[in-house]
Amino acid sequence: MSSPLSSINKNLAILHITVFVWGFTGVLGKLISVSSSHLVWYRVLIAFISLFLYFRLLKIDIKLNRIVFLKLFFTGAIVGLHWILFFESIKTATVSVALVCLSSLTLFTAILEPLIKKHKISKLEIFTGILIICGIYIIFKFESRYTYGIICGLLSSLCASIFTIINSKQIKNRSASIITFYELIGAWVWISVFLLLSNGFNSEMNLSVNDTIYLLLLGTFCTSVAYVAGVAVMKELSAFKVALVTNLEPIYGIILAFLFFGKQEQMSTEFYFGTTIVLSSIFLHPLIKNRIEKIRKKKTL
Fold it and tell me: Shortest CA distance to 258 belongs to which of 245, 247, 271, 246?
């Protein structure tokens, strides 16, 4: 029988691999030649089909009442928009730019969550948000040739913040995999409507052999499998540890992008300075928050 410590270490290893796989998403987005909207259409189609097969294999009941289904279905529109903007940022700028902009999720959540849930804004989150703004400002100033890509990346992060806050309520009553499944269906339907209205179902959707392979990897391993694995480890690991390791995603992604694309991913010194400010703020945030909570607990004893 394995000890609790070995079980925790095993789940930590799984989480690191999962986050590493998520970091690989940006590389695949750059390698796939079809447009951002077509890419996401294929991705969510493959992802929700593979999740459906997973549910059937494990005989998991996925029935929902109509109200909950509609909530998740409409949230899927935000999820789909988030991914389209994210891949548009990658294609019009670089993987590194898109991942750093996506890191502003902490900033948007710090602002929006208190407003939506009507509670006091944390001073620590305000401070973290200010540092993130400083880092993004430096990147904006010295990488102006990627202005469109940066704007897409920031809007993608804003969408991610909105559906994350929505899901934080849904997760209390149902499993994360069920939420994801119905949101993926919603995303696929809404993107299909958009493509239909914009005459997007055309020859540009034709896939090369490489595109097909990359999309299958993106839709299965980087979406469905990685997501299920990421949720599974939460049974053993604390939310703090999960948050801390997840913050490594942009770091893994930037390293992988540099390995795959080399000079295409080389940025200015100022970009890396701004990136260091953003990532350091995000990485240190849970450490400081955890420390403050421990001090508060000691005072109450």
Answer: 271
